[in-house]
UniProtKB/TrEMBL annotation:
Entry GO MF terms: hydrolase activity
The organism of origin for this protein: Qipengyuania xiapuensis
UniProt xrefs under Gene3D superfamilies: Glycosyl hydrolase domain, family 43
Keyword vocabulary terms for this entry: Hydrolase
Lineage: Bacteria, Pseudomonadati, Pseudomonadota, Alphaproteobacteria, Sphingomonadales
Highest taxon above the source species: Bacteria
Name recorded for this polypeptide: Glycoside hydrolase family 68 protein
Length: 92
C-alpha cells in the first residue's frame, strides 16, 4: 500500500496562506491599555490604501491615501457597524 501525499493546500488554509512548515504562534491578547486612539471620538478599523490596478499603492507628490471604516466611538463597540462610513487619511 502506497502512502498518500498531503492534499494540495486549499485557498484559505494555513498552508496556502503561509507556506510549508508554517506553525501558528501564540500572541498575547490586546487589552485596552495597549490601544492609543488616533482620533479621540472616532473608532477606525479595516484599512486599505488607494491602489493602482496592478495592486501597487498610489503615491501623489509623496502622499499615499489610506481608507478606513470609521464610526463615532460608542459605549458598545459592536454598534459601530451600524454607523460605519468609509473615511480616508492622507499620509506622507
Amino acid at each position: 500500500m502506497m502512502a498518500q501525499a498531503d492534499p494540495a493546500p486549499t485557498m484559505g488554509s494555513s498552508k496556502w496562506l503561509c507556506g510549508p512548515g508554517w506553525q501558528p504562534a501564540e500572541l498575547p491578547a490586546i487589552g485596552q491599555s495597549d490601544v492609543t486612539p488616533l482620533l479621540p471620538d472616532c473608532d477606525l478599523w479595516d484599512c486599505w490604501p488607494l491602489q493602482h490596478e496592478d495592486g501597487s499603492t498610489v503615491e501623489i507628490d509623496g502622499v499615499q491615501y489610506w481608507f478606513f471604516l470609521s464610526s463615532p466611538r460608542l459605549p458598545d463597540p459592536g454598534q459601530r457597524h451600524h454607523h460605519a462610513r468609509v473615511s480616508y487619511i492622507p499620509t506622507s
